[in-house]
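Q: Given only this backbone (99 positions), what sequence would you predict?
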């Protein structure tokens, strides 16, 4: 298990280093930059959708799902405030209060 974590950390560091270090002769073109701009939202969506909509391995879309209610509230706060800190605090507080 620890070996897997260390190897994944090395892979993540290497991939970031290749794209960010200025001394390397590797440059990313505008098309690839545009393509890569979608990777963070795609990964985050792949993480939160199963947590929010499938909390126990089955679809749970109801007003009794604290994950869903806290997520909806966090989306509203994020849209209105544009503050990642406020959104995180409100979402976490809502989840813990609803749970």
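A: Predicted residues:
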């Amino acid at each position: 298990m620890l070996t897997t974590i260390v190897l994944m950390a090395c892979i993540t560091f290497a991939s970031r280093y290749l794209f960010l270090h200025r001394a390397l002769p590797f440059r990313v073109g505008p098309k690839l930059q545009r393509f890569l701009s979608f990777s963070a939202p795609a990964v985050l969506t792949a993480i939160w959708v199963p947590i929010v909509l499938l909390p126990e391995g089955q679809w749970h879309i109801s007003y009794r799902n604290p994950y869903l209610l806290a997520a909806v509230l966090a989306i509203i706060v994020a849209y209105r405030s544009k503050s990642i800190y406020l959104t995180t605090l409100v979402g976490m507080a809502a989840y813990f209060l609803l749970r």
